[in-house]
């Protein structure tokens, strides 16, 4: 049995159909075929691959552990509420571009069941897509957000982009006319108490203005931005996971980082997110 999807073959842009038996496979009319890995995800980064570093298995485990503690649950709830407000009763097609473990997408699916139609989680990390593949009614695909998104034109009602590279031209292409693009970035005071002692990357100033300008050039109108800020009570294990799960995890020594987190003890740390809302225009 084959089911049509909104996905496109990354090699020829032909429509991909999903077959279940004898194994889960995506295939296009030209004969290009992608078999699911045993963990359930599909890898479209064949051949040349990507020049960017994927999050490693230890980094993904740290992120999963931190998210499991509920420290970013208020952000997930905010995103789910924004989706429900924009599309209160519709059955939606969602793409999570740079999905990581799929945590935010999963929370939206749980809180807004009408979204369960053809969700797509996309990330360059195979280890992250192993987690995202466990989400119900979701196709998890290893792919580079900087490239052409393997989804049809105007095939998505919501594009979710949390702490991930932005590709506004592609976001605009795949969004339907009444669609919504949600972009989450760290505010200037995000994690300000521990960024320096844990050797985490700094947050550049003026990000919101640059983001709005960048998306505007691709015909995505800025509906507004809202800041979500609250205090987190983090123990040394949380602090280690917080630092190691992000971009700094590519160059931090786990042993050194654990020692630094232990020396800080339990801390109150600011979580501060800017949530930006964009809609297609023109």
Write the topology of this structure.
Elements: E1 2-8, E2 15-19, E3 25-27, E4 33-35, E5 42-43, H1 57-68, H2 73-86, E6 94-97, H3 103-111, E7 119-123, H4 126-132, E8 138-142, E9 156-162, H5 168-174, E10 175-186, H6 207-216, E11 220-234, H7 236-244, H8 254-264, E12 267-280
Helix pairs in contact: 1-7, 2-3, 7-8
Quick one: CATH class of the largest domain? Alpha Beta
Average residue-wise pLDDT:
92
- Note poorly predicted spans: none
Question: Structural class of the helix and strand makeup?
Answer: alpha/beta
CATH topology tier name of the largest domain: Rossmann fold
Query: Radius of gyration from the CA trace?
Result: 19 Å
Tally the helices.
8
- Topology pattern, helix = H, strand = E: EEEEEHHEHEHEEHEHEHHE
Gross CATH architecture of the largest domain: 3-Layer(aba) Sandwich
Approximately how much helix is present in the residues?
25-40%
Distance separating the two termini: 39 Å
Tally of separate domains = 2
What spatial order of strands do you see in the largest sheet?
5-8-7-6-9-10-12-11
What is the strand tally?
A: 12
- Which homologous superfamily in CATH is the superfamily of the largest domain? Vaccinia Virus protein VP39
> Which strand-content bin applies to the residues?
25-35%
**Largest β sheet strand count, sense and barrel closure:** 8 strands, mixed
Assign an overall shape.
globular
InterPro entries: RlmA_N (IPR048647), rRNA_m1G-MeTrfase_A_prd (IPR016718), SAM-dependent_MTases_sf (IPR029063)
Binding site for S-adenosyl-L-methionine: 72, 101-102, 190
Domain 23S rRNA (guanine(745)-N(1))-methyltransferase N-terminal: 8-45
Protein name: SAM-dependent methyltransferase
């Amino acid at each position: 049995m084959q089911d049509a999807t909104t996905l496109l073959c990354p090699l020829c842009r032909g429509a991909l159909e999903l077959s279940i038996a004898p194994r889960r496979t995506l295939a296009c009319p030209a004969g290009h075929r992608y078999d699911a890995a045993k963990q359930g995800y599909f890898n479209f980064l064949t051949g040349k691959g990507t020049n960017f570093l994927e999050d490693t298995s230890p980094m993904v485990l740290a992120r999963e552990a931190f998210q499991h503690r509920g420290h970013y649950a208020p952000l997930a709830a905010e995103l789910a509420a924004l989706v429900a407000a924009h599309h209160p009763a519709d059955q939606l097609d969602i793409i999570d571009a740079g999905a990581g473990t799929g945590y935010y997408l999963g929370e939206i699916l749980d809180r807004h069941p009408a979204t369960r139609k053809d969700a797509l989680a996309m990330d360059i990390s195979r280890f992250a897509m192993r987690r995202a593949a466990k989400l119900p009614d979701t196709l998890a695909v290893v792919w580079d957000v900087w490239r052409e998104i393997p989804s049809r034109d105007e095939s998505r009602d919501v594009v979710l982009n949390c702490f991930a590279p932005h590709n506004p031209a592609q976001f605009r292409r795949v969004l339907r006319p009444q669609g919504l693009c949600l972009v989450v970035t760290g505010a200037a005071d995000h994690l300000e108490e521990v960024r320096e002692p844990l050797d985490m990357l700094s947050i550049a100033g003026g990000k919101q203005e640059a983001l709005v300008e960048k998306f505007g050039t691709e015909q995505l109108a800025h509906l507004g931005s809202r800041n979500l800020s609250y205090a987190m009570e983090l123990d040394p294990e949380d602090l280690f996971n917080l630092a190691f799960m992000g971009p700094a995890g590519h160059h931090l020594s786990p042993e050194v980082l654990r020692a630094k987190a232990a020396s800080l003890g339990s801390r109150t740390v600011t979580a501060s997110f800017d949530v930006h809302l964009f809609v297609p225009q023109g």
